[in-house]
Amino acid sequence: MLTPETRRRDFAVLDGMTYLNSAAEGIPPPAVRDALEQYFNDKRLGMAGRTAHAAQWEAAKALTAEFYGLSPSEVSICSCSSEAYNLAAMALRLKAGDEVVVNDLDFPAGATPWLQPTCAATTRVWRNRDGALRVEDLIPLLTAKTRLVTVSLVSFFNGFRITLPEVVAAVRKHSSALLAVDVTQALGRIPLDLAGADLIVSSTHKWILASHGGGLVGVPSARAAEWTVPAGGWFNLEDPFGANRFEKAVSKPGAASFTVGMPNYPAVYAIRAALDYIRGVGVANIDAAARPLVLSCLAELRKLPVEMLTPNEPEHVAGILAFRHPKAEAIHQRLLAANVHVMSQAGRMRVAIHGYTTAEDVERFLKELRAALAV
User: Averaged over 219-239, what is the pLDDT?
Assistant: First the structure.
């Protein structure tokens, strides 16, 4: 990652492959493999292995907290971002008359809990204009009834990056709502400043290069009461094995309430190793290396006969570019035949550029895409 030598050492699988799909699946470095092997070795110790499991748990929380700008006590880990949002819905205890604002550039995990028929609140949609979420379009949706605004820092759909301070300012000025921010498509790829977010969520198998089975949750201590999940379990409870355990259940406050049962320790080991690796490389260094490739790729894509979904606004671009074409699936198959990997879904194609992406990767993708478009 970042140099030919470290790329060859840590991502040997990419030799001969053009991989531009980290927004779906990141390529883990050997440190993650080693961590999973360490989990196996620790698990073979039986109960004695739980001491090592607990140490990995605390280390993974500490690293997550560092990336989120929180303390370790303000973060926890559940099974995935979808679980995190469903638990968040439980915590809010929404009732008729409450309103939730979602947006049409978000991944389903952050929007669909509020769309289920069992949710009593009214859902309002912050709609994009030409691929961008404009704060001036959010403000009319905010009222005294708004309980929650949920948004991704970087959209999975087209890579649009919101200006978080502007969103925070609008939510605070025009409502008393909580603000949930999904950083799945940002964590490990761009530097983060999450000041003002009341709930932070991320999955773990994309840009941070860890495994499936993790959801990183952050809740600032000042918001712990609002985000305390009233779920059954044991790991999330204050006294799960006490004398009164069949008389009442009391959740731990805030982030700790999102881990309702035995942690997924294999994923925890992988998360710890991956975040440690990303920290060692440096997110600022990753962004400095990858951003010029993103901008040059965007400029070239705009010259091609495709429908760009990513706005031509460099200040709102992170690591993802997206476009549509009527023959997207045929183009995708041709790219795969050339060992060029991007995402294709329902006519939309998405390119994701990470720290292990090279200028040659971008050039090869564009060359093969031009050839496919010419057919």
Answer: 97
Do 294 and 331 reside in the same domain of the chain? yes
Residue 146 lies in a domain: yes
| Reported confidence tier of residue 375, pLDDT bands at 50, 70, 90 | confident
- 264 and 295 part of one domain: no
* Residues 209 and 320 grouped into a single domain: no
Whether the Cβ atoms of residue 34 and residue 181 lie closer than 8 Å to each other? no
The residue written with tokens 């759909």 in the block is 157
Q: Does residue 272 sit in the same domain as residue 219?
A: yes
Residue 302 lies in a domain: yes
Give 1's pLDDT tier (boundaries 50, 70, 90): confident
Domain residues for 309? 4-20+282-374
The contacts of residue 237 (CB under 8 Å, 6+ apart) are: 249, 250, 251, 252
Residue 226 is assigned to a structural domain of this protein: yes
Query: What's the pLDDT at 17?
Result: 96
Q: What are the tens digits of pLDDT across the range 107-139? A: 999 999 999 999 999 999 999 999 999 999 999
Query: In percent, how much of the chain has pLDDT > 90?
Result: 99
At 132, the amino acid letter reads A
User: Is 26 within a domain?
Assistant: no
Say what the pLDDT of residue 221 is: 97
The answer to whether residues 214 and 99 belong to one domain is yes
Domain check: are 43 and 118 in the same one? yes
